[in-house]
Design a protein that fits this description.
Blueprint (H helix, E strand, L loop, with lengths): L1 H25 L5 H23 L1 E6 L10 E4 L5 H9 L3 E6 L8 H7 L3 E3 L7 H15 L3 E3 L18 H9 L3 E6 L14 E7 L10 H19 L12 H5 L1
Helix pairs in contact: 1-2, 2-3, 6-7
Amino acid sequence: MAIIRSLLLWLVFTPFTIIWFIPILFSAVLPRRQRHNVGAFWNTTFVFLIDKIIGLRYEVHGLENVPDEPTIICCKHQSGYETLALQRFLPSQVFIMKKELLWFPILGISLYIMNSIPIDRDKKNPKTREQLIKTAHKRKKDGFWINIFPEGTRVPPGRKGKYRYGAANMAQALKMNILPIATNSGEFWSKGLVKYPGTAKFIIGKPISYKIGDAKEMMHQCEEWIESQQLKITGEGPLGPKKQNDQDIIN
């Protein structure tokens, strides 16, 4: 049944995306906020289709911790689903993404028009960080929140990647706090074709202040909080590891 539902999702979603690509292109002449709203309709529709066809929805805990001012979002990255869901329950946001994604047909152009921030992961280029901060500052002035996956890439459910300092460095440069978020979305949304029904959980923590003044300490607090919450929700989905003990989950 999961295979049939997944095939149906893509059969409906693919032509919708191709058709919606036309207004996305025309929105390029609009101000950043307005063209972002055009793309947000696509996101809302996709999440709706996932709910109705797959039977996958999300549950959010800790919304009282969401501040009023623009913040850097640091969410556990297990699948593509959180890139959709986060935009439904948090303010307008842009993603820090690898620049290679810009080369994908339709997706790349859409991401560019939607104000995403591409990053050159070539660490030998001294201008990379300077340009990243400059672009992120412009997005902040436009009122956008900034979304950075702290481990830098997708990590399978039950695993932990290396937390990088990029989010903390940006937080201090832009004077923005970090909002840590745990999720088990990867236990329902696989990298492959088949997606599974259920309820993906998101837990939002209290903001971590940039005034701490030390990037290492900021990311240490972010990592400790996220991973402690992961232990509470890991193993709830069909693709999650079995809960044997805490050590099995985090190693």
